[in-house]
Write a structure and sequence with these properties.
The chain is about 25% helix and about 30% strand. The protein is of the alpha+beta class. The chain has two domains: about 60 residues, Winged helix-like DNA-binding domain superfamily/Winged helix DNA-binding domain (Arc Repressor Mutant, subunit A, Orthogonal Bundle), CATH 1.10.10; about 160 residues, 3-Layer(aba) Sandwich (Chorismate lyase), CATH 3.40.1410.10. A hairpin with a 2-residue loop joins β5 and β6.
């Protein structure tokens, strides 16, 4: 590897570790800012004078450590600090992105009325086959997909849901505006995404995802049943909450 002859001598590291240190230094100095596209392996081989195998190992380890991420068919990019979704609150993904300085955009993949599937009808307390609204969107931060959002909406709660322009307002923002949630349930699972979701989120093979299932109520009625899928390397879910004396024994 090409080294600075004036650099102080230090214990010799493996070449792939030198490549990792080189990349991390560029990230630290903001020469490579978040979402910067990393030069190709061939370019780094020529620049650093090491083998492609060495570069590949360094980039692969940095990806596993969360410092880089790969978008299939596009390239490798510098990872931002993982955004975090609040687990115990109901909030628009657009607000979460903007609150940390990101730039939100979205794409509507599906927006239609359809007969309620058996599972969804049971959750909502509706007869199977009842009309229900179905929406699927992909949300992005600075062009990078971070959430695949599938939502079933009770027409009795939001009868004009299908008439909204979800390029201008998110479904969450609209629903919270017209029908404030009185109760919510969150369940999180880690799993491998199906091929269609993987493609929409630009996830490489073998990367797991986080899935947040959210059911909301408005009064006694189930308003929505949602499935939010996040690439595990680009997102985390967490919350901070106050514990009362009565609840402390349930936590510790």
């Amino acid at each position: 590897m090409i080294l600075d002859p004036h650099e102080p001598k230090r214990p010799r590291r493996a070449l792939y570790q030198e490549v990792k240190a080189y990349v991390l230094d560029l990230i630290k100095r903001q020469a490579w800012p978040p979402h910067y596209r990393v030069p190709s392996e061939n370019t780094l081989v020529e620049r650093l004078g090491v083998s492609r195998m060495t570069v590949n190992r360094a980039l692969r380890e940095l990806s596993h450590e969360g410092r880089l991420y790969r978008v299939q068919g596009v390239g490798t990019f510098v990872a931002a600090q993982k955004p975090q979704a609040a687990f115990l609150t109901v909030r628009s993904i657009a607000d979460e992105i903007k609150s940390r300085g990101g730039i939100h955009s979205s794409e509507v993949l599906l927006l239609q009325e359809e007969p309620a599937p058996e599972e969804i009808a049971a959750i909502m307390g509706l007869p199977e086959g009842s009309p229900i609204f179905h929406a699927v969107l992909v949300h992005r931060d600075r062009g990078v997909p971070i959430q695949y959002a599938e939502r079933f909406v009770n027409p009795a709660v939001a009868p004009e849901f299908l008439q909204q322009d979800f390029d201008r307002i998110t479904p969450s923002e609209y629903l919270l505006k017209i029908a404030p949630v009185t109760e919510a349930e969150h369940v999180v699972e880690a799993m491998m995404p199906d091929p269609a979701v993987r493609k929409r989120l630009h996830m490489p093979a073998h990367e797991p995802c986080l899935v947040l299932y959210r059911t909301t109520w408005v009064g006694p009625a189930v308003a929505t049943r949602n499935r939010f899928v996040y690439p595990a390397t680009r997102f985390r879910i967490g919350s901070r909450f106050r514990i009362t004396a009565d609840d402390a024994h349930l936590i510790i």
